[in-house]
Amino acid sequence: MTDDLDRIMAVMASAFDPAWGEAWNRRQVDDALTLGNCHYFLISAQGKPIEAGEEAAGFSLSRTGYEEEELLLLAVAPEYRRLGLGRSLLEALKRASSQRGAKRLLLEMRRGNPAERLYSSMGFYQIGERKDYYRLLHGERLDALTFACDID
Ligand SMILES: CC(C)(COP(=O)(O)OP(=O)(O)OC[C@H]1O[C@@H](n2cnc3c(N)ncnc32)[C@H](O)[C@@H]1OP(=O)(O)O)[C@@H](O)C(=O)NCCC(=O)NCCS
Fold first, then answer.
1. What residues contact 14, with CB distance under 8 A and at least 6 apart?
2. 76 - beta bridge partners?
3. Statement: the pTM of the whole predicted model exceeds 0.85
4. Which residues are known to be catalytic?
5. Domains defined for the chain, CATH in brackets
6. Fewer Cβ atoms within 10 Å of its own Cβ: the N or the C terminal residue of the chain?
7. Ligand 1 lining (C-beta closer than 6 Å)
8. What residues of the chain score a pLDDT lower than 50?
9. What is the pLDDT of residue 81?
């Protein structure tokens, strides 16, 4: 687990622009995973589950609720972007969350995140909006958009 936490944090450090304040710190991730209702998936640069000793190129972190699963974080290290890894992580999440009993996936993102294109192409549709929800590094506010995706 510590190895995997290290892998998650390595991707976290490279993937999130500090300007948005979206990255979680090690304690937050560790706490989430200790709760028992959160799940992670690590992907290699070749788009496969990682093997012992291998570095991760991306990860997802999600939280299970009743018949729902919320995507908390999705990240791919910059050097491995636009190779389909983000899509593979979402496909793996759909499969795993379905096995855990989820009938839909939920996520929240800041308005304007280019990840929206990926989410839309994977069947996510907007279900809500929270005005000025995020507070950025220099005090600006940004809306949060909530999306859902039905799982067959
Ligand atoms: C969002 C993120 C996970 C996407 O990872 P990725 O591996 O590059 O995604 P994919 O290669 O699977 O992209 C699949 C499709 O989604 C769309 N897409 C992905 N990133 C995009 C971007 N920055 N701009 C526009 N479209 C994008 C494209 O249609 C892409 O297909 P194409 O490359 O054939 O045009 C990655 O950019 C990232 O880690 N961003 C920073 C963290 C973040 O904002 N996470 C989401 C909120 S928690």
1. 77, 78
2. 58
3. yes
4. 108, 119
5. 2-106 (3.40.630.30)
6. C
7. 15-16, 73-76, 81-87, 109, 113-115, 117-118, 121
8. none
9. 98
